[in-house]
Each structure stands twice: as C-alpha cells, then as structure tokens.
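Revision sheet: structure tokens.
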Amino acid sequence: MADFTSNYNTPIVPAYRSIIMDLLTTTHLARVDDRFVYDPIFALGMEQIFAEFFKAYPGTDAGKIETAMVQALDLDSAQAKADAKAVVEWASGKDAAGLEALFDEPDSSAVGSAVAAIKANKDFLYNRVFGVGLFKLFADAGIETIDNELLTKYATKLGYSATKFQQDYDLYSESLSKLRSVEQLFKEIEIREKKKLAARLEEKAAKAAEAAAAAKAVADGTAPEEVDETPRLEEPKGEQQSAEV
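Predicted:
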C-alpha cells in the first residue's frame, strides 16, 4: 500500500477504496509468490478491472490510479497496456469455438507462446486478475452464459483448480452489479445538483435582467413616477363663526 500511495497521493473516492484495497492486497500476495509469472492475460485482467470498475470514477484520475497500481506491483505499466492490447488482437474476431481452439493449440505469437507456457507449467499460480482477463476474452467471443461448466473446462485446459476460478467469477459479477448501482446513484445525484444549479442560475439571470431593465428606464426617463401612497389624516372641519361689530 505504501508504494501505491507514494505513486498516487491523492485521496481515493470513498466508494472505491475497498476495491483498491482488495485489488492491492490479493494481487500483491500473488505477486510475491515464487510461482507467480507475469503473462499477457494477467495484463488484460488488470486493464479490464480498471475499464469496468473505474469507468465512472469522478474526474480524470482513473488512468493515474491504474498506473500507480501496476507500478506498486513492480510491473511496467506501459508494457502491461501493450500486452493487454495484444491479447485482445490475438483473440479478435473469434467466437466461442475459435477461442477454445486458440487455447487448445496455441499459435507461435507472443500471446500463444504465453498460453503454451502456462499449460506446460505444472506449478502455474492462478490469480484473480488472470481470471478477469479470461472473463474479458469470454465476453469478446460472444459467450453470453459463463457457468461452472465453461469455467471448469478452461481451468482444466490451463491446468489449475476450477474452484477458485468459479468463486472469482461470482465475486466479479456481484461486484460489478453493486458498483453499477452506486454509479446510478452518483448519476442521479449529479442530475439533481445540475437541476438545482440551473434553477439558481435562471433565477439570478431573471433578477439581473429585471434590474437592467429598471436601470435603463431610469436612464431613458421612462421610469414611472413614484406615487406617495402614505395615508394622510384629514383636518377636522371647524364651525364657521361670524363676528359682529
């Protein structure tokens, strides 16, 4: 966490703090494990997490937070972005069957070679960010139903336990759903505040226009004369007396 805050020392918006903390903690634990091997699918997972979970982050700091996160994990942020893009291009245009074929018989590209290395590594360390990278590939391939059968099939292909993979997908889906609710709340609050501001500005503009019109009338000599409407007391009528001389 210290490395992250030194890279990004601006307070995180409260609704996103738990996401940052969880991502940092779980990914750091994987990163310091001797079995951890960086690969392009991991890079895609990190890119996808920020694309989905931080799309509505207030302001323009989402990219800075992602860079600080990747650097805190002692990884090259520019390389990670390039690798994530390469994975998307590698699987571009593939449907469910085409994607499965890529994993069954990886080609000689950089991504294909990484997949082949994962399959050959009996000690491959699965981690949540890697899993999210696969979820992104499933979505891009048009796979609408991601169930335990599909997750088990890919876990078996790549040689790791399906249980954690399934748990991570459930957590990922639930977290996205909750975040979308928070984003909707933010949007509603923003709309209300904009309406209030517009009403205040409209009222202010109307008063300014009224004052300007009054000032112009005075300058033109067309302002109506003020009538003194203060009530006055009538003097009592005295009796007329005639004086005889």
